Amino acid sequence: xxxxxxxxxxxxxxxxxxxxxxxxxxxxxxxxxxxxxxxxxxxxxxxxxxxxxxxxxxxxxxxxxxxxxxxxxxxxxxxxxxxxxxxxxxxxxxxxxxxxxxxxxxxxxxxxxxxxxxxxxxxxxxxxxxxxxxxxxxxxxxxxxxxx
Length: 148
Fold this sequence. Notes:
about 150 residues, mainly beta, 5-stranded mixed beta barrel, 10 strands, about 40% strand, 1 helix, CATH 2.40.50.200
C-alpha cells in the first residue's frame, strides 16, 4: 500500500512539473544562488548529491546535500527501498557517503555521489534563514567534468 502511495506522489509531482514547464521553463541557477531566490521559483541547477551526516526523513521525504564544490544546499527527494524515477534509494541505518544512490528521470539509470546531476525543482523557503530545493526531476549533468 505504501508503494502505491509513493507511486501516486511521484505521478502527481510529475504532473505538476509538466504543468509548470508548459508555462515557464526552469530558471538556470547555481547552488550558491538558490537561497537568494524567491520561494516557489522553478529552477534547474547542477551539482553532486551527498548523504548528510544525519539523514532527515519525514513520510518518505528525505533531505540530502547538493554541492557544486563551493556551496551546499539541501534537496528534498522521495526515498524508497525500491526507488523508481527521481527517487533516492533509502540507505541502510548505518550508512556511509558511499551508500548514496538515486534513480534518474529515465527510471533505469541509478547514480552515486560521484555523478554530477541536473536537478529541476522548486525553491522552498520555510523561513527567512532556511531554504531547500524540492526536486522533481534528476538527469545527468551536461558536463560531468565541470564539477569537482
